[in-house]
């Protein structure tokens, strides 16, 4: 007698079954995490070899001599990597799209990866960029699942009494309303793709249900998530920090509770990623309301799941055995014709690297646009430092996003403020010009000028070039500061059609055009609550 397809998910959702599953996963996690860690360097060499063998008959593989690379590499990891670099140059997405993807899109079959690409993750990287169509293969879906399970395993091993799978895992993602540009091919938000690929047996452990995840209107979806989610036994929630905070605020308004822990007493972990978390930390600590809720960093991108926060150290643990080959280029060499390419076999601690991926979806030697720094090599542990395009050097100050993120967090802490969003860019007025910071506070400082002074001083401590350009006689004045009301950046994102899901506010604008656009939008929307003009070259304005 055949069993109805709907029976197994119903059985999987029964409380005794969930308790048994939770116990089994917790035991397996403890055993696997206590074992001897693998050799990350050997893992990476093996992944590169497997990727090359899999894709050697594709158009890209033939064009770049994958057979020759494998022959030249032999059994030596170093020779294999050196041969790969010789035959396969670094590429931006734009170059790969122009040379290989655009002519075949939307039906990519045996172009850069064997078989038909079933999905494209649509992303602009930031709200400034044009849409990118990132290939997502079946192998990449499996890679992402393996990485996610690795993260869950590490979480549960670090929490001996974890009840993660006795509750529900909440993924605050975008709409799952995917387009179909060709038969057998769909495209849309990466979280939409992941939601559709969830096994039926996992549905009882996941929120939101598929019919709610399909809602395309972000505002309507957010309201429905609050109404239906408040009574669910949520044990984990994952999302972009700014959207998580927005959801939490609405959740508390709906329930009348003062903290998230009161609404969801089973909540163990908040998974965040996509941006530096430091400026958000105090806001999350206050709104969560329980030291027992862990903050778990994760580093996925549309091209692949790169790393997750190590529960012991808090640093990012790169995943080295799931279909990605990672390379690292010193950021200060990116403008060279042939920058140095490192891998786990010869990377160095303390260097700010641009990360390069070769993936099981056919992205080869691809400059992702993110920057990282190794804090340890044995085991490999990373810090996310920002974006390659997120820098301010209009006046020779060479500020990177990590430095501004840290200074923003330090100024907030010193002044008792909580920052929810921010953006910085140059203004080319006067001689030589100045920086403008646009800051949304969920808790404003008692003294905005004190916040600016703390921000300016901390930037000078972190960056010698900034300090030199701010010194007397050089001429770079105290930055201008525009404070905006809560929700102002979300209003701008809504106006750009980028509200919700995985979209993020662009932190920095090297050219100043976006900074000017944001300032104009906030003023026209009557969203500015206070404004400080650029101050004196040194000291208090």
From TrEMBL:
<dbReference type="GO" id="GO:0016881">
    <property type="term" value="F:acid-amino acid ligase activity"/>
</dbReference>
<protein>
    <submittedName>
        <fullName>GH3 auxin-responsive promoter</fullName>
    </submittedName>
</protein>
<dbReference type="Pfam" id="PF23571">
    <property type="entry name" value="GH3_M"/>
</dbReference>
<dbReference type="InterPro" id="IPR055377">
    <property type="entry name" value="GH3_M"/>
</dbReference>
<dbReference type="Pfam" id="PF03321">
    <property type="entry name" value="GH3"/>
</dbReference>
<dbReference type="GO" id="GO:0005737">
    <property type="term" value="C:cytoplasm"/>
</dbReference>
<dbReference type="Pfam" id="PF23572">
    <property type="entry name" value="GH3_C"/>
</dbReference>
<dbReference type="InterPro" id="IPR055378">
    <property type="entry name" value="GH3_C"/>
</dbReference>
<dbReference type="InterPro" id="IPR004993">
    <property type="entry name" value="GH3"/>
</dbReference>
<feature type="domain" description="GH3 C-terminal">
    <location>
        <begin position="402"/>
        <end position="508"/>
    </location>
</feature>
<feature type="domain" description="GH3 middle">
    <location>
        <begin position="320"/>
        <end position="387"/>
    </location>
</feature>
């Amino acid at each position: 007698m055949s069993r109805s397809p709907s029976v197994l998910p119903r059985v999987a959702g029964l409380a005794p079954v969930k308790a048994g599953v939770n116990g089994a996963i917790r035991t397996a996690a403890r055993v696997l995490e206590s074992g001897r860690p693998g050799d990350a360097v050997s893992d990476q060499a093996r992944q590169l070899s497997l990727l090359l063998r899999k894709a050697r008959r594709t158009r890209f593989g033939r064009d770049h001599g994958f057979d020759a690379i494998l022959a030249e590499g032999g059994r030596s990891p170093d020779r294999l990597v050196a041969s790969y670099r010789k035959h396969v140059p670094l590429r931006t997405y734009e170059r790969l799209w122009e040379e290989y993807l655009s002519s075949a899109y939307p039906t990519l079959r045996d172009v850069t990866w064997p078989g038909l690409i079933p999905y494209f993750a649509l992303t602009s990287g930031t709200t400034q960029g044009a849409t990118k169509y990132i290939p997502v293969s079946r192998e990449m879906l499996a890679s992402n699942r393996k990485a996610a399970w690795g993260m869950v395993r590490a979480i549960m091993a670090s929490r001996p009494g974890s009840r993660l799978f006795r509750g529900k895992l909440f993924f605050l993602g975008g709409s799952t309303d995917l387009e179909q540009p060709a038969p057998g091919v769909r495209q849309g938000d990466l979280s939409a793709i992941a939601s559709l690929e969830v096994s039926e047996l996992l549905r009882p452990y996941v929120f939101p249900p598929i019919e709610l995840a399909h809602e395309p209107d972000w505002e309507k979806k957010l309201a429905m998530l609050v109404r239906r989610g408040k009574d669910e036994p949520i044990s984990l929630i994952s999302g972009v920090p700014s959207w998580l905070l927005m959801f939490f605020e609405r959740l508390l308004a709906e329930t009348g509770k003062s903290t998230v822990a009161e609404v969801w007493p089973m909540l163990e972990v908040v998974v965040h990623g996509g941006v530096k978390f430091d400026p958000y930390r105090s806001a999350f600590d206050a709104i969560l309301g329980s030291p027992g809720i862990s903050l778990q960093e994760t580093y996925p991108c549309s091209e692949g799941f790169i790393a997750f926060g190590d529960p012991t150290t808090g640093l990012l643990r790169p995943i080295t055995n799931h279909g990605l080959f990672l390379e690292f280029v010193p950021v200060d060499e990116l403008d060279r014709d042939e920058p140095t390419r490192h891998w786990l076999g010869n990377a160095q601690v303390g260097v700010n690297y641009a990360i390069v991926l070769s993936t099981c979806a056919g992205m080869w030697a691809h400059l992702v646009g993110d920057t990282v720094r190794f804090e340890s090599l044995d085991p490999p542990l990373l810090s996310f430092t920002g974006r390659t395009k997120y820098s301010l050097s209009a006046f020779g100050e060479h500020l990177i996003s990590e430095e501004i993120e840290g200074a923003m967090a330090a100024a907030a802490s010193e002044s008792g403020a909580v920052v929810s969003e921010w953006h910085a860019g140059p203004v080319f007025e006067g001689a030589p010009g100045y920086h403008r910071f646009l800051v949304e506070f969920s808790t404003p400082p008692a003294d905005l000028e004190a916040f600016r002074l703390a921000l300016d001083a901390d930037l000078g401590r972190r960056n010698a070039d900034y300090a030199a350009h701010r010194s007397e006689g050089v001429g770079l004045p105290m930055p201008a500061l525009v404070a905006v009301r809560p929700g102002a950046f979300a209003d701008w994102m809504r106006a750009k059609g980028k509200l919700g899901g995985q979209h993020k506010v662009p932190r920095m604008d090297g050219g100043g055009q976006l900074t000017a656009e944001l300032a104009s939008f906030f003023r026209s929307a009557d969203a500015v609550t206070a404004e400080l003009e650029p101050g004196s070259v040194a000291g208090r304005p």
